[in-house]
Amino acid sequence: MQYALITDLHSSLSDTRAVLKDIQTTAPQAVVFSLGDVHECHVGKKRAKRYVFEEIEHVVTLDPDFLKLLFFETLLGNQEERLFSLVPVGVSRFLDQLRLSDRTKQLASARFIHGDQLKWSYDLTPDTSEYSDRLLFFGHSHVRGLFKDGKRLVVHPGIPISIKRGRYAINVGPVLVEREWMLYDTTAETITFYRVR
């Protein structure tokens, strides 16, 4: 089975369209799966604490062209969590449906989360000690990365990496601006980082 993993779209129509097109060309048989932050919340964390809802357009842009691209399953990221705290139930049928999504997904020895559930160092190294899973996939920091048994490894886009042995923490990299995605092959037990040029 192959999974095309994406994360941190932040409502970017052009970046999302480019990444999905690349996935279709590179791995048309792969199941597309998102690790969260599909949408961009217009209200920052500090302002959200005192925000009083008036209109949905002040909180999120639900561009019909962008929404047409969202055919895949997604986890909830911190952007979605903030959106749900600001937009009342019943205002948007689309957001109400999205509220049913999970924060985490387990697949055999792999766990998928959004990286806001991790603690991060100043150099954007994630603390994954709370998770015992052999494979931990995430996003959030907008910096792709691969860590084996706690040590950062160098990665080169387009080259498959074997993940048969060891414990890996895998930061997929953002769709927004960087146009990155990852192919996870559960049969071959490989991951391949991709970046759309």
Please tell me about this protein's structure.
This protein is α/β, with parallel strands linked by helices. The strands form three sheets. A six-stranded mixed sheet has the order 3-2-1-13-14-11, with no helix packed on it. The protein has five helices and 14 strands. A hairpin with a 2-residue loop joins strand 9 and strand 10.
List the helices and strands and how they pair.
Layout (H helix, E strand, L loop, with lengths): L1 E5 L6 H14 L4 E4 L10 H4 L15 H4 L5 E2 L3 H9 L6 H6 L5 E4 L2 E4 L5 E2 L5 E2 L7 E4 L6 E4 L2 E3 L7 E2 L5 E4 L8 E6 L4 E6 L2
Parallel strand pairs: 1-2, 2-3, 5-8, 8-12
Antiparallel strand pairs: 1-13, 4-5, 6-7, 9-10, 9-12, 11-14, 13-14
Entry keywords:
about 200 residues; six-stranded mixed beta sheet
Beta-strand proportion:
25-35%
Mean pLDDT, to the nearest integer, reads 96
Order of helices and strands: EHEHHEHHEEEEEEEEEEE
- Specify the overall morphology: globular
What gyration radius follows from the Cα positions, in whole Å? 17 Å
> How much helicity do the residues have?
10-25%
Which structural class do the helices and strands define?
A: alpha/beta
Q: What is the terminal-to-terminal distance?
A: 26 Å
Order of strands, main sheet, comes to 3-2-1-13-14-11
Number of helices: 5
The biggest sheet, with number of strands, parallel, antiparallel or mixed sense and barrel status, is: 6 strands, mixed
Please count the beta strands (DSSP E, at least 2 residues each).
14
Name the poorly predicted regions.
none
